[in-house]
Amino acid sequence: MDQGNRAALSSTSTSQITEFPINAEMGLTLDFGTPVNTALLVYILYSVQRIIFPSTSKPTTIPNEFKAGYSWMPKSHPPTVLYKTYTPKTLEPFSGKDGGRILLAIDGIVFDVTAGRNFYGPDGMYGNFAGRDASRGMAKQSFDLEMLTPVDQPLDKLDDLKSDEVENMKGWIEHFSNKYIICGKLVENGQA
């Protein structure tokens, strides 16, 4: 820029704008304004380039054979759960001890609650219900041992429950039915 142009720039007030013609000796310059405008232009150009020339990637394939360190098949088939009839004595071994299955009964319906081992296992907060008829405890919202009928006695008839306690028990049955597998029914000792 020569001396005359510099003088014109320095004498320009804020309300007056002086235009300078672009000539061959000055060269062509593009003014993008702020760095934000420059970044936006670069982003737009990149996006347009990605739309016009999309990258081609290899399609993913589903593995069809065993490869070292990777197995696409489960290690073992989950154990089959059969619907059967239980008595208090035959239900008792299913308390989850030694890593076994955990079953409990509510109002004659036996549920496989093995998936909830943290709750119903030997060390769980409801572990006393495992392998037992939990009807009275669920109805009364009590997890005390006196809520459980001994396995060598007849099943609890639940005749003395109030209507709200029966509704509470039915709510637990619905909850368990939606969450766990129904795997049998509970009958009196000697009837299975």
TrEMBL record:
Is the keyword Iron assigned to this protein?
yes
Q: Which Pfam families match?
A: Cyt-b5
**Domain annotation Cytochrome b5 heme-binding: ranges:** 86-187
Where mainly located? Answer: endoplasmic reticulum
- Entry GO MF terms: heme binding; metal ion binding
Question: What keywords appear on the UniProt entry?
Answer: Endoplasmic reticulum, Heme, Iron, Metal-binding
Q: Which superkingdom?
A: Eukaryota
Q: Where in the cell is it found?
A: Endoplasmic reticulum
Q: Name one GO cellular component term.
A: endoplasmic reticulum
- Metal-binding among the record's keywords? yes
Q: What is stated as this protein's family in its record?
A: Belongs to the cytochrome b5 family. MAPR subfamily.
Official protein name in the record: Cytochrome b5 heme-binding domain-containing protein
Q: Which organism is it from?
A: Ephemerocybe angulata
